[in-house]
Amino acid sequence: MKVEDKQVNKASQVYRRLLGYLKPHRGRFALALFFMVLYGCTDGVIPFLIRSILDDIFGKQNKQMLYMLPIILICFGVARGLIGFFEKYLASSVGLAIIKDIRNEINSHLLTLSASFYSRHSSGSLISRMTNDTLLVRSALTDAVAAVLRDTVRMIALFCAAAYLDPMLAAVAFLGFPLGIYPVIRYGKKVRRLSKVGQDQFGGLTSILQESILGQKVVQAFGLEKYEQERFNAENKKLTSTYLKAEKYGALGAPTNELIATVAIAGIILYGGYTVISGVRTQGDFIAFITALFLCYDPLKKITRVNNIIQMGNAAAERIFEILDTKPEIFDEEDAIDEVIKSPVVEYKNVSFAYPQNGEVTSDNHQAVVLNSISFSVNPGQTLALVGMSGGGKSTIVNLLPRFYDVSAGAISINGLDIRKRTLVSLRRAIAIVSQHTFLFDDTIYNNILYGRVEATSDEVIAAAKAANAYNFISALPKTFQTRIGEQGLRLSGGERARIAIARALLKNAPILILDEATAALDSESEQLVQEAIERLMQGRTVFVIAHRLATVRNADQIAVVVNGRIIEQGNHKDLLAKNGEYTKLYEIQFSENTGNGQ
Fold first, then answer.
1. Which fold has domain 3-324?
2. Inter-residue contact 307 to 188 (CB < 8 Å)
3. Bridge pairing between strands 512-516 and 431-435
4. In this model, does residue 397 exceed pLDDT 90?
5. For the chain, which terminus, N or C, has the lower number of CB atoms within 10 Å?
C-alpha cells in the first residue's frame, strides 16, 4: 500500500472515530440537520421569485402579483430567518457539547497517567491540546458536517431550479464541477500535515509563555527579559510561518474553482444572452437561471473549504487521541485489595529502580538506574530519616511508596502485602506528603486545607490550622480562611505555605507521613513554627523524613545514609556516629559549616 493511501486510511479512521462523539447528541444534531436541509431547499425558491418579478410584474404588468409578491417575500424571509436561526443554534449547541465531552475525557484520562508521562510532555503542550485542538475538532465535526449537508442541499436545490428553467444550459454550467475537486483533495493533504506541525508548535509556544510567566522573578532577577522575548519571538515566527503555508495551500482551491466558474458563466452569458435576443427564452427565465448559477457559487466555495476544516480537525484529533490512547503505567491489578490501612509496617525488599526512557525501562542503561537493592523496614510510630548528598536517590525511595512509579525489581509491602496488590485509592489514602516545594491551588486557604479530606467539617479545618500553627496568621488576614492565595500560593510567605500544607496533611490524618525537606529554605522563626507543627503531625505515624540538615533527624528511630542509589549505613544517630563512616563525615561537614557561620 502506498504511503499516501495509508495516510488517507488513517485520516478516515480518525474522522470516523471523531464522528463517535456525535452519538450522545444525535437527536439534537438530527434536528439541526433537518433545519439545514430545509434552509438549503429555500435557496431553490429564490430564482423563481426573481423570474416572477421580471416576467409577471415587469413583463406582463400583473397588478395582482405586484400586491401578492411583497407579502410572499416577507413570509419567505421570516421563515428562512427562523430556519437559519434554529439550524445554527442547534449545531452550535451540539458543537459546544462535544468540546465539553472531549475536554472532560482528556482531563479524566490525564488524571490517571503516571509521573513518567508528565516528564515526557510539557504542560503547555497538554493545555494546547485541551484548548486549541478541541476547537478545531469541533469545526471538523459540526461545522464541516453542517456545511457539507446544508451547502450540498443548496447546490442540489439550485441545480434542480436551473435544470427546470433550462436543462441544456444547466448541463453546460455544471460540466466543469468535477474539475474543481482535484485541487481541493491535493492541497487538503498538505493542509493536514502542516496543521499538525503547527499545532505541535502552538504547544511549544504555550510552554514558553507559561514558563516565562511562572518564572517571572527568575527572568527578571537574571536580567533575561530580552532573551525570553527573543525565544518567544523565534517560536512565534516558526508557528506563523507554518500556519501561513497551510493557509496558502488552503487558499489555492478557491481561485481554481473561481476560474472554472468564471469560464462557465462567461460561456453561459454569451449563449444565453444570444437566445434572449433571438426570442428563444424570456428575460425572466434567463435572469432566474443566472441567479441560480450565481447562488450556486457560494455553497460551492464553502464546500471546497470544508476539506481544509476536516484536515485541520483530523490533525488536531490525532494529537488528542495520542493522549487518550496512552495507557496508564500505574494501575490497579484485577485482584487488588481495597482496605483501610492501620498501624502500617512498611518494608522495602531488595528494591531497584530505573526511570523509564520514552515509556520503557532500559535495564541495560546504567545511567538510568537510580536505586539498587534497597532494603529496610519501618514499624508503626517509627521515623526513618533518609540522608545523603543530593542526587543519591532519597526522593526516589519515597516516591515509590505511593506508586508514583513502580519498582523495577524487588517489592515494597505494607503490613506484609505488596503495595501493587492494593488499590491505588486505598494506598494513597494512607499516605500524606509535605515537601519543600509546596504546591497550593489558586483558591481560598479554606479549600486548600480541605483538599486533605474534602468531606471534613469547618471545625476540623480550623482545628487542623491551629495544630499547624497557621491559625494566627490566617485570622489576621482581611478575609481569614476565605482569602485567595494566588497561583501556587505566591501571596503567602514560604513559612505560611508550609503551614498550610501541614494543615492539609493533618486533616488527611493518614497513618504514613512523608516529609521531603519540609523545613528547607525557611527563616529561623518560620522554621520553628513549622517544626512545631511537624512534630504534632508526626505523632503516632509511620514517618519517612528526607533532610539535608542532620540536626533535624537526630531523634529519628532509624537513619539510612543513601549514596548513589544504595543504603551504605543504617542505624540511629548515636550508632552511626560511633561507626565513624559516611554519616560522621556528613555530620562533621555540617557542624564545621555551622561553626563557621557562627551558629
1. ABC transporter transmembrane region fold (1.20.1560)
2. yes
3. parallel
4. yes
5. N
Nearest to 231 by CA among 241, 221, 246, 219: 219
Cα–Cα distances in Å, from 3 out to 7, 486, 494?
6, 51, 56
Higher pLDDT, 574 or 150: 574
> If you average pLDDT over residues 319-342, what whole number do you get?
90
User: What is the distance between the terminal CA atoms of the chain, rounded to a whole angstrom?
Assistant: 75
Residue 568's pLDDT band (boundaries 50, 70, 90)? very high
In the three-class reduction of DSSP (H, G, I as helix; E, B as strand; rest coil), residue 512 is classed as strand
Q: Do 367 and 400 contact (CB within 8 A), yes or no?
A: no
Handedness of CA 397, 402, 408, 409 (dihedral sign): positive
Which cell is 594 given? 555551622
What cell does 475 get? 485570622
Please compute the mean of the pLDDT values over residues 571-598 and round it to a whole number: 77
Cell 516558526 appears where?
Answer: 238
Are 400 and 420 in contact by the 8 Å Cβ rule? The answer is no
Compute, in degrees rounded to 10, the torsion defined by CA atoms 445, 448, 452, 456. 50
- HSE-CB for 250 with a 13 A CA cutoff: 21
Torsion angle (degrees, nearest 10) of CA 585, 591, 592, 598: 170
Confidence check: pLDDT of 594 > 80: no
Report pLDDT for 344: 94
Exposure of 512 in the CB half-sphere (CA atoms within 13 A)? 25
Instruction: Find the farthest-apart pair of alpha carbons in the chain and give their distance in angstroms, rounded.
Output: 120
Domains of the chain, by residue range, sit at 3-324
Compute the distance between CA of residue 49 and CA of residue 291 in angstroms, rounded to an integer. 10
Name the DSSP class of 224: -
